[in-house]
Specification:
With 479 residues, chain A is α+β, with helices and mostly antiparallel strands. Chain A has helices at 2-45, 64-76, 90-99, 112-120, 141-146, 170-177, 182-188, 192-204, 235-249, 261-268, 299-305, 325-332, 365-376, 379-388, 397-402, 416-425, 436-451, 457-471; strands at 55-60, 79-84, 107-110, 157-158, 164-169, 208-210, 226-227, 230-231, 270-272, 313-322, 340-343, 355-358, 407-408, 414-415. Classes of the chains: A alpha+beta (479), B mainly alpha (275).
Chain lengths: 479, 275
């Protein structure tokens, strides 16, 4: 009996306490609301126009939109708030918010591989309602297509184009092939057998064609991975697989891993050739100094110890990167600056790009559309961005035309924009599907297990089919 | 002699272990003084000269001190509420016999096994309907229900709090709440401090919920702010700034640890009851 009383008291006191906690919380909430209201009142008092007492909210995963937003505010007086979210969490954050009915973001962005998902849960408003199609001819075609959902409704637009090209060393080209003309060099990369031939020629001359064997990856999407719900592995994919295996097994690359120290070093000149087993480093510690004998991710260790493993130095001829590689290369070429050139690869391809759209939940869609027009469809902005970013490639055809005679000193005064426009115009976006990232990764996995001899070709391809089947159970797979 | 040898060996291993634990901290401090390019090219223990640059980079992205204030505003109330209500629940479950006691305890055990991230979208919608987006309330109030802490404290109370102590208090006419506040809490304070420290660290480092629920730059907690440093267009550029921000952000954790760890060591219940 007594116990019951006690429990009752206990429960009651708990309730009172928790109510008190809630109460104080609510108090804080109301005072917050009060302050925002007074903030609004201030804005109206300033007598600003109807639009400017509201702030346009932009959610993004890359910091470059901050610069655009700053310029937009300067020019139009509309307040903007750019919320930058860590790239790996961005899809989760946006999906939770939009599906949860959040009205706060007005402009949201996506990268090509995220767009499929974002379309499917209805993240973006229909840009055609705002007359987007009037601008269809002004933007490079493939970018326009990427921003369309399955029904062909325009949902997002990008201010960048990201066609992939081959970045090559002009001085080596002159020495080995007697020409440095991008068009002639492009012929050396025309198709997979030619690339192998080129690679052999370069090896005979003491060079290596690529630093890693992943350089052709951007150009390998010559056919769609999925056609009518069916997995499509065509001959081109198998040829690409053979090419990578050949490059690796016939010692035609410098065995660097993409984005690792030796890979960056190869941009600046001589690099040691590592044997195939060493491309991921030698983690033994035979000399007992507490450090691995060779750590490719650690430049000091790498430079100190590499002589023990490789007495052969070489220079690398080419890199395969999208248009934004212009900036990456610029920051890492060092003394070879000015000796580079860019030519087309064996096929058309692209990688990355930030696409802007209006959140379907936004209450200020007209303002948002105005901002998107400013970022993507305004020639003056595009002009400014080319200068401000020091060489990024915009998506407005007219501006690319205008800058087609601009030369870039890092790349031997090559006229870059004309080339990127041409490469971008060749991209056939109908071959891109929302499955590309996962299937492409699985294919890459299969290739690396073949080249290292870990699996036979047949086993690797079967494992690939299994992986795809378990990732996308709905796909029809014919083995 | 043998003993001395053993001791020396033991101390040697302990020192080695301590050095191993401290090494990452040292590396973090050193990396905070280096630029992004230096960090990707390798690691060294010699500090570099880029602290000021890193500092500027951090403040270009956000105000570190605002983030710290926001994190404190979330972590301290959440920790206090969690510690108080968890010990109350644990005491209730351990010392009162009533119908359903076992059921409640089982329920708590089961809830321990469900990860909180499961229903993100639902939680977001709930908060959105309650107008609690951009507020710290959904980050603080749910901390009251901490099944793991309750479980731990219940076990501790059963093992360290003698029923005769509570009975003695009752005989002397103390009310139940008074007993809890003046008797139970002091005795279980080592366990509460342990769970408090863990809770504080957990709340301080909490990333997922604030990332989802806070949409305003100036209201973001520290881990969310620091994550935005990774959105730089140049992958390597901000590495040094990230290290610097992390190095600064662990200071409150160190302070809390220093302050509370003495409660872990001392236990008032020692010798309270003659068996």
């Amino acid at each position: 009996m007594k116990a019951k009383k006690l429990i009752a008291t206990l429960l009651a006191s708990t309730m009172v306490l928790s109510l008190a906690a809630c109460g104080s919380g609510e108090g804080a909430g109301t005072s917050n609301a009060g302050s925002t209201e007074s903030g609004k009142a201030d804005a109206t008092n300033e007598g600003a126009a109807a639009t400017s007492d509201e702030t346009l909210v932009i959610w993004t995963l890359a910091d470059d939109l901050k610069d655009f937003a700053e310029r937009y505010t300067e020019q139009t007086g509309v307040k903007t708030e750019v919320v930058v979210i860590a790239p790996e969490d961005y899809p989760t954050k946006v999906q939770t918010a939009i599906v949860g009915g959040e009205t706060e973001p007005d402009v949201i962005v996506g990268e090509p591989q995220m767009l499929g998902d974002m379309f499917s849960y209805g993240a973006f408003a229909n840009l055609d309602d705002f007359g987007a199609q009037d601008y269809a001819d002004q933007i490079v075609d493939y970018v326009w297509e990427v921003g369309k959902d399955e029904e062909g409704i325009q949902r997002a637009i990008s201010y960048q184009i990201t066609p992939a090209g081959i970045y090559y060393r002009r001085d080596i080209a002159q020495e080995v092939f007697g020409t440095e003309d991008p068009e002639e060099i492009g012929k050396l990369f025309a198709d997979y057998p030619t690339i192998l031939e080129t690679a052999e020629t370069l090896k005979a001359a003491g060079y290596r064609i690529f630093a890693s064997d992943s350089e052709i990856n951007y150009f390998s999407g010559d056919s769609a991975w999925v056609i009518d719900g069916k997995l499509n592995v065509d001959q081109g994919r198998l040829d690409y697989m053979d090419l990578v295996v050949e490059l690796y097994q016939r010692d035609l690359t410098a065995y660097a891993a993409q984005w690792a120290t030796p890979w960056y070093q190869a941009m600046a000149g001589e690099v040691p050739i590592l044997s195939a087993e060493l491309q991921w480093g030698n983690w033994d510690d035979a000399d007992g100094d507490g450090n691995p004998d060779l750590n490719i991710w650690d430049a000091d260790n790498f430079n100190e110890n590499v002589a023990n493993f490789s007495d052969e130095m070489t220079e690398v001829f080419a890199f395969g990167l999208p248009a934004w590689g212009v900036l990456t290369m610029r920051d890492h070429v060092g003394d070879t600056s000015g000796k580079w050139g860019v030519c087309p690869g064996p096929a058309y391809g692209f990688g990355g790009g930030t696409f802007l759209g209006i959140s379907s939940q936004s209450k200020r869609q007209d303002m948002a559309w105005d901002f998107i027009k400013f970022v993507t469809l305004n020639e003056e902005t595009a002009d400014w961005w080319i200068e401000f970013s020091e060489g990024d490639t915009v998506s407005l055809k007219s501006v690319l035309e205008k800058h087609k005679d601009d030369t870039n000193p890092v790349y031997g005064d090559q006229k870059m924009y004309a080339m990127w426009l041409e490469l971008a115009e060749g991209i056939d976006y109908s071959k891109v599907t929302q499955y590309d990232k996962a299937i492409g990764d699985a294919w890459g996995q299969a290739i690396s297990s073949i080249k290292t001899g870990e699996m036979s070709k047949e086993d690797a391809i079967n494992t690939f089919y299994d992986t795809v089947q378990s990732t996308y159970p709905d796909l029809i797979i014919e083995r | 002699m043998w003993n001395k040898c053993m001791k020396a060996l033991l101390y040697f291993f302990l020192i080695l272990l301590a050095a191993m634990c401290l090494f990452p901290f040292l590396m973090m401090m050193v990396n905070a003084t280096r630029s992004g390019a230096e960090i990707v090219t390798g690691f060294t223990l010699i500090p570099s000269t880029h602290t000021a640059d890193n500092w500027h980079t951090v403040f270009e992205y956000f105000n570190l001190f605002v983030g710290m204030r926001n994190s404190i505003l979330v972590a301290i109330p959440a920790t206090l509420l969690s510690a108080y209500f968890s010990s109350m629940t644990a005491y209730g479950l351990a010392f009162y016999k009533f119908k359903g006691n076992k059921v409640i305890f089982m329920a708590i055990l089961i809830f321990m096994m469900i990860p909180g991230q499961l229903s993100l979208i639902g939680f977001y919608q709930l908060c959105s309907k309650l107008h609690l987006i951009n507020s710290y309330i959904p980050l603080i109030i749910p901390a009251i229900a901490a099944p793991g802490t309750v479980f731990f404290l219940r076990q501790y109370i059963l093992s360290s709090l003698s029923p005769s102590l509570v009975e003695a208090a009752r005989i002397d006419g103390a009310s139940e709440l008074y007993t809890f506040h003046r008797l139970v809490i002091p005795i279980i304070s080592p366990a509460v401090a342990t769970m408090g420290i863990m809770g504080f660290i957990g709340n301080w480092n909490n990333y997922l919920l604030p990332m989802i629920l806070i949409n305003k730059n100036e209201k973001m907690t520290l881990p969310v702010m620091m994550a935005t440093l990774r959105s730089s267009t140049d992958i390597n550029a901000n590495q040094g700034a990230i290290y610097l921000a992390v190095a600064i952000s662990i200071i409150p954790i160190l302070v809390v640890f220093c302050f509370f760890s003495k409660y872990i060591i001392s236990s008032v219940s020692a010798g309270a009851v003659k068996e």
